[in-house]
Amino acid sequence: MIISESTAHAAYWQPLWADGRQYRPLDGSEKRLMSEYLGPGQARPALDIGCGSGALARHLHHEFGYRATGVDCAPSAIALAAAHDTGSGPGPVWTCLDITTEDLTALPDPAYALITCRLVYRWMDDKPAFLDRVRRLLAPGGTFWVVTEITGRRTTTDPPLHELGITPEDAELLTNGWSAIHTADLDVLRCYALRP
């Protein structure tokens, strides 16, 4: 497996989603952790960064009661998310947006009670700049929910796969400067609930 130099932009993800690539689905354990750490949405705005096929944004919207927006830099992912949103009643808003470079005023809300970043943080080229943008979008008292693989947790002898995930330095950068940090492990993943 060869990982290109930059994987944070549409040129990398567009063909993968267009070709039907699937990633780790939400499971019961992850949903239980979200219920424990995120609580009910009460129609507050939520932003799912790197929404892919939209499963998390739909879950936040329909099951937790958030007013969810899913953003992804790949038009093919946004099209897939919209196609899967077949529930009754209004669903999440789907927006094609590169959260790392584009104008954040294009988002439907100026601030979000919940921002999620599931299986995306590891791919950010400029993590400090990304985290600055998240902090600008997070409402006072809000939660930043990050689900990411931790380097070295896979049981494989394939070095590129073994190195997928975030390093201890990436984790320290992620958790620095928050007033409340809660973590929970799910096999190769770690879930973070971060509050300002």
Topology at a glance:
Elements (H helix, E strand, L loop, with lengths): L9 H9 L9 H11 L6 E5 L5 H9 L3 E6 L2 H10 L8 E4 L15 E7 L8 H11 E12 L9 H4 L5 H8 L4 E7 L2 E7 L1
Helix pairs in contact: 1-4
Strand order, sheet with most strands: 3-2-1-4-5-7-6
Radius of gyration over alpha carbons?
16 Å
Order of helices and strands: HHEHEHEEHEHHEE
Number of helices: 7
How much beta, percentage-wise?
15-25%
Overall average residue pLDDT = 89
Helix content: 25-40%
User: How many runs of DSSP E, i.e. beta strands?
Assistant: 7
Indicate the low-confidence ranges by residue numbers.
Answer: 1-5
The first-to-last residue Cα distance is 37 Å
- Principal-axes geometry comes out as globular
**Structural class of the helix and strand makeup?**
alpha/beta
How does the major sheet shape up?
7 strands, mixed
